[in-house]
Design brief:
The chain is of the alpha/beta class and 606 residues long. The strands form seven sheets. Strands 3-2-1-4-5-12 form a six-stranded parallel beta sheet, sandwiched between helices. β24, α16 and β25 form a beta-alpha-beta unit.
């Protein structure tokens, strides 16, 4: 059993991750007001001291603790650390993102230090944004000076204000839509006191507003947590850590794309080149903004270049690249000033249009290129004062290799797509979800059951992260659980939605899957069905497309090229395609309202 702590944003995300497993877990918050809706979570409330936590974990057979509580919940963190040591329980800390500590701010280790500074500098008009729990800690100051506190509009907060005899007229209530700059201008405090609460706590906005008005900012540093806690920085990082520490909790393991592996290898190689130290692992940023830690399997140095390898882990997805070495070699090049991508052994070369890459380029897709460029640029910026002069104006060459790539590529459709000589380095989200198994269909059912339990009546099904990112803009009012990834299992997903009795179903689909679905394929995996150009020609003829368009269709290698070759005057083709998709899907969803949105490469939908 897993025990999650936290009535925070991170706590809600941690509970949502655990909910995906379809298994029971415990979710603990300090008060009843910190409610979170889950289908499988057992909500417990009230703070536990060390002894209570010890006996709870032992009685409930807790195998893993996820600490997603507020960074300043010091007593809780200490109790968790003590109990985890006694019971030998691993603790995963779902951490916030914290900006680097700005030297222009005033940093303090304790509230006593803050009071000493305020007294010494005769600060007599303080705005404290540190929460109601710090009213007692700052009492020696506000008893003799003018001070305002902003607190949450809750009964327990008002009770605490009353208990401490803090002047009610000096209490402000937090409003989510409040503009910090407007508030600061109205109150004109001599100083603002905040906690190092990270981006989730609005730290950056508070600092920016105070800086704009040239108001002194005092910051209480976040408490230091136990070194035994294992930090993660996002939902995928948490899931991966739970998969490794509690095998079997999730029926399927997730993995990383070849693009993520290449990015980690490139970052590790550049770090080793600049520092002379091999990296056992590196943190990289996924397209979602989440930080993940990737292990580096080997490092080699050859003159002025360094190569690092990462072993591809596809989780439980039957990916032909699973377990393969993805190698990135990095070196400075004075002949240019950019990040340049070169093709190594086992990486294919593009020979046909339609892939979004120029013919002759290495088959390294756009998202991995952006990820690698971002990591390299960040490292160079960090080391800019230490770089040798010859490197300051030099570019960086990144050569990506997959030793067995050419052999692996024979098991894929790459040659038919115009990628020859190896595999492609791909990935839009950076992670691999195991789409190709019965267990994934079961996970779709569990996700829909969660949505149903939470009162969702409108489900939006998407093929993956990219289409979901686009379609969320059309339905900003829907909760996160209403968005379901169907992968390739369109038919199974619609059947489940029908069985569970959802009233409305919206499907976002991109052109590659749409052309397969329109022909009747409810499972669109590339191993089972390929784009049928004869079928596309029939659709185009029925839609009244010109002879030139028909000829262009005969030459395409990727369905996405249809957006480029079909003129706006002939967009009846896409309307026809949507109607055919609808006709295939509607018999599976008879009682509810079905909507199908065809999404183009820019995120627009029809």
């Amino acid at each position: 059993m897993i025990l999650v702590f936290g009535g925070t944003t991170e706590g809600k995300k941690a509970a949502a991750v655990c909910d995906e497993a379809g298994q029971p877990f415990y979710y603990s918050t300090k008060s009843n007001s910190q409610v979170i809706a889950t289908a499988n979570g057992i909500h417990i409330t009230g703070g536990m001291d060390e002894d209570q936590l010890f006996f709870f974990c032992r009685a409930k057979d807790i195998r893993l603790i996820v600490d997603a509580a507020h960074p300043f919940a010091e007593a809780l963190h200490k109790n968790i650390a003590a109990v985890s040591e006694q019971l030998k329980l691993p603790v995963v800390r779902y951490e916030r993102n914290y900006p680097p500590r700005d030297k222009n701010l005033l940093w303090f280790d304790s509230y006593n230090e803050v009071i000493a500074y305020l007294e010494k500098n005769n600060v007599n008009n303080l705005l404290a944004l540190t929460g109601v729990n710090t009213v007692s800690k700052l009492k020696p100051y506000w008893q003799g000076h003018h001070c305002r506190f902003r607190i949450l509009d809750r009964d327990e907060s008002r009770d605490m204000i009353k208990k401490e005899n803090f002047p009610v007229n000096n209490v402000l209530y937090y409003r989510t839509e409040e503009d910090e700059t407007v508030l600061f201008e109205q109150l004109k405090p001599a100083a603002v006191l905040i906690k190092e609460s990270g981006d989730t706590g609005g730290f950056t906005k508070k600092v920016a507003a105070a800086g704009h008005l040239k108001i002194r900012v005092l910051v209480v540093k976040r408490p230091v947590l136990s070194v035994s806690f294992i930090p993660v920085y996002g939902e995928h990082g948490l899931r991966k850590k739970i998969e490794s520490l509690c095998p079997g909790f999730f029926p399927l393991r997730t993995g990383y794309t070849t693009g993520t592996c290449a990015t980690a290898a490139a970052k590790a190689a550049l770090m080793a080149l600049l520092t002379g130290k091999e990296q056992a692992s590196v943190d990289i940023t996924l397209p979602s903004g989440e930080l993940v830690d990737i292990a580096v399997s080997s490092t080699s140095v050859e003159g002025d270049k360094v190569s690092c390898a990462v072993l591809k882990d596809a989780g439980d997805d039957p990916d032909v690249t699973n377990g393969q070495e993805i190698i990135s070699t990095v070196q400075f090049n004075p002949d240019h000033t950019e990040v340049r991508f070169l093709r190594g052994k086992g990486v294919g070369v593009v020979t046909l249009p339609g892939l979004g890459l120029a013919i002759g380029e290495p088959a390294i897709n756009e998202t991995p290129r952006k990820m690698i460029t971002q990591e390299i640029t960040g490292i160079l910026h960090h080391f800019q004062d230490e770089l040798p002069e010859q490197c300051l104006s030099a570019g960086v060459d990144v050569t990506i290799s997959v030793p067995n790539g050419e052999e692996i590529a024979r098991k894929t459709f790459n040659p038919k797509l115009g990628v020859v000589g190896g595999i492609s380095i791909i990935g839009t989200s950076g992670i691999v979800k195991p789409f190709s198994s019965d267990a994934f269909v079961a996970s779709i059912r569990r996700e829909m059951q969660v949505a149903k339990a939470l009162g969702c009546e409108h489900i939006v099904m998407n093929s993956g992260a990219k289409s979901e990112r686009f379609i969320r803009k059309a339905y900003p009012m829907l909760r996160d659980q209403a968005f379901i990834h169907y992968g390739n299992f369109i038919g199974e997903t619609i059947k489940i939605a029908s069985e569970l009795g959802f009233g409305q179903l919206t499907m976002g689909i991109m052109i590659g899957k749409a052309v397969k679905l329109a022909e009747g394929s409810l499972d669109t995996h590339s191993k089972k069905v390929l784009m049928n150009k004869n079928f596309l020609l029939e659709v185009a003829q029925e839609a009244g497309c010109a002879a030139e368009t028909l000829q262009a269709i005969r030459t395409i290698t990727m369905a996405r090229q249809l957006w480029d070759i079909i003129p706006k005057a002939e967009h009846a083709f896409f309307s026809r395609l949507i109607k055919m998709c609808y006709d295939v899907c509607k018999p599976l969803f008879i009682k509810g309202a079905l909507e199908i949105l065809l999404i183009d490469e820019e995120g627009q939908h029809q």
